[in-house]
């Protein structure tokens, strides 16, 4: 299990904080439902800085690869992660509502005990497709070798036996 990284968001920005690390996929509880297998890890970078508009920002970058479950064939689907997000920090709910109305930037409430792993996990979930699937024709369901063909045998058709019973 990886060590949780908690920051005071505004203090992290004031100090121009930078952090790089790795998180095991098995440590991301909410992501487990999407995974075909939970082996592997992702890299993250988080930087705090004052933006050109003199507002506090968290800059988040996530890289890695996940094996999701294809919703069509239930097989493994490799999903590369390359997320880059800029989040403006606001101090009040009113500022958050105002920032959301503008829709030009993503905003989040600055808290003194922000769990970076939870933030990363949320960004990963938001980046995933609603229904992860292979491209058309790539699923195992389209592979004729996957299914065994029923060979014609000399044995009696089971429905023929039912037909005989019906006549009795």
Description:
The chain has 168 residues and is of the alpha+beta class. It has one domain (6-147). It has helices spanning 9-14, 93-102, 116-127, 158-167, and strands spanning 6-7, 18-24, 35-37, 41-50, 56-69, 76-90, 106-109, 114-115. The strands form 2 sheets. Strands 2, 3, 4, 5, 6 and 7 form a 6-stranded mixed β-sheet that branches. A two-stranded antiparallel ribbon has the order 1-8. The longest helix is centred in the last third of the chain and has 12 residues, at 116-127. It is elongated and about 85 Å long. It starts with 5 loop residues before the first strand and ends with a helix. The mean pLDDT is 84.
**Strand segment count:** 8
Whole-number radius of gyration?
A: 25 Å
**From N to C, what is the helix and strand string?**
EHEEEEEHEEHH
How many strands, what sense, and barrel or not for the largest sheet? 6 strands, mixed
Look at the structure and give the mean pLDDT. 84
Percent in helix: 10-25%
Provide the domain count.
1
Could you name the ranges where pLDDT drops below 50 across 5 or more consecutive residues? none
Query: Structural class, judged by helices and strands?
Result: alpha+beta
How many helices? The count is 4
Query: Beta-strand level of the residues, as a percent range?
Result: 25-35%
Query: Gap between N and C termini, in Å?
Result: 67 Å
């Amino acid at each position: 299990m990886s060590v949780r990284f908690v920051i005071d968001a505004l203090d992290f920005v004031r100090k121009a904080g930078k952090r790089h690390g790795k998180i095991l996929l098995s440590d991301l509880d909410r992501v487990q439902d999407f995974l075909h297998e939970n082996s592997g890890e992702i890299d993250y970078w988080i930087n705090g800085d004052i933006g050109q508009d003199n507002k506090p920002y968290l800059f988040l970058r996530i890289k890695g690869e996940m094996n999701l479950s294809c919703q069509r064939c239930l097989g493994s689907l490799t999903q590369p992660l390359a997320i880059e997000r800029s989040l403006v920090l606001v101090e009040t709910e009113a500022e958050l509502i105002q920032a959301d109305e503008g829709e030009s930037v993503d905003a989040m409430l600055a808290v003194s005990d922000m769990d970076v792993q939870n933030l990363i996990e949320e960004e990963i979930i938001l980046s995933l497709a609603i229904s992860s699937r292979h491209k058309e024709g790539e699923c195992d369901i389209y592979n004729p070798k996957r299914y065994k063909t029923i060979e014609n045998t000399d044995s009696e058709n089971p429905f023929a036996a039912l037909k005989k019973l019906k006549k009795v």
